[in-house]
Amino acid sequence: MSLDNRTALFRMPIELRWRDLDAFNHVNNSNFMTYLEEARIRWFDSLGEEWVTDATAPLLAAVQMNYRVPIPYPSSVVVELFADRVGNSSVTLGHHIGSEDGTVLHADGHVVMVWIDRATGRPTALPDAVRRVASSIAPPAAP
Question: Binning pLDDT at 50, 70 and 90, where does residue 1 land?
């Protein structure tokens, strides 16, 4: 479905629920964030290695969402995640929410996830699996 030429880290179809709608009969903007959250957690879980522990955890540090076209009901959408940047303690994940057939882009943007030490609240190194997989398809860093 990808609406650009990036390689997706993860793709997740979503069947809309009636409760996702607002008074204007399209998906409420807050549900877009819920779709992204679910896709991120499923991607982390799909790595098959620890990405959260008693000592470390990811926090959402920033979100940027461009709402392009409302999502009507009924419909199915696909969330795609991309590795945009891999840092020492953070990963920037690009995202698309698009129509199931790939012809409509409903939203795009990115999130920054930072791993922290739970005891100190300070940034800590990315989990190995997150770094390895995201680095394998992230664009090269600018010089």
Answer: very low
